[in-house]
Write a structure and sequence with these properties.
Its main location: membrane. Pfam families: Rhomboid. This is Rhomboid family intramembrane serine protease. Keywords: Hydrolase, Membrane, Protease, Transmembrane, Transmembrane helix. This protein has a two-stranded antiparallel ribbon. The chain is mainly α. α1 crosses α8. It is globular and about 55 Å long. It has one domain: Up-down Bundle (Rhomboid-like fold). It contains eight helices and two strands; from the N terminus they run ααβααβαααα. 61% of the residues lie in helices and 2% in strands.
């Protein structure tokens, strides 16, 4: 293994750790805001939820698609949303906080519009569950669009572990806004495509002699090619090889 290849792996791993650290603090700050809003909302008898929730068909309430995800109807409501919101939000953000902010805006708008256009009965809808479903959809398919094998594996694990979430994004689920969930899921999958990594993947070159330096090999272990070489490189960047 040449020194250049090893140095690149160290740099990639450091960048990934730095992004993960930023993602953690971003989600910590976001959760703090959501809970502070809940405290103010509770202290005012949930007037904020009534004033800034999404009410379908009312043009004056259309901007509330951006405020509704920050609001909840009870302590049980925010408690049930907080764990999934932090976990899926962190997994969505660790590849880049700027991309994550764009994704959050997209998911909030698509989820909110689904409620504003299709929800009947003038129901006032609030809650972060649309964001949760958006982040979930994004995490599940992001690896496929970015061609990151580690992210693909994470997506498979999340899909297998939380497949039950899809059952509350279909019509007929009592007591929840399935439209917000379905809209968030659609927004998350769309975001994975819109914000996909368009940079060309760098080849892992041997840096050796005799064959012109064009062969693809992993940083350690036996030679590999194609997807296997990508997997070796990503595992090496994470310090797992």
């Amino acid at each position: 293994m040449g020194a250049g290849a090893g140095g690149g792996g160290v740099v990639d791993a450091e960048l990934m750790v730095a992004e993960a650290r930023k993602a953690f603090f971003t989600m910590f700050a976001f959760m703090a805001v959501v809970w502070l809003v809940q405290l103010a909302n509770w202290g005012d008898g949930y007037a904020l939820s009534r004033q800034y929730g999404i009410v379908s068909g009312q043009a004056g309430r259309l901007p509330d698609v951006l405020t509704a995800p920050l609001l909840h109807w009870s302590w049980a409501h925010i408690e049930s949303n907080s764990g999934p919101l932090f976990v899926f939000g962190f997994l969505a953000a660790y590849r880049g906080v700027v991309r994550f902010l764009g994704l959050s805006l997209l998911v909030a708008v698509v989820s909110g519009l689904a409620v504003w256009i299709f929800q009947g009965g003038g129901t006032d809808t609030v809650g972060a569950s649309g964001l949760i479903f958006g982040y979930f959809g994004y995490v599940v398919v992001r690896g496929l669009f970015d061609r990151h094998l580690i992210d693909t594996l994470i997506g498979v694990v999340m899909a297998a572990s939380f497949a039950y979430l899809v059952t509350i994004a279909v019509p007929g689920t009592p007591g929840v806004s399935w439209l917000a969930h379905l809209g968030g899921l659609v927004g998350g999958v769309a975001g994975a495509w819109i914000f996909r990594d368009r940079r060309p993947r760098p080849a892992v070159s041997s840096g050796g002699t005799g064959t012109g330096g064009g062969a693809i090999v992993p940083s350690r272990g036996t030679p590999a090619s194609g997807d296997r070489a990508d997997l070796h490189k990503e595992l090496g960047d994470l310090g797992l090889l």
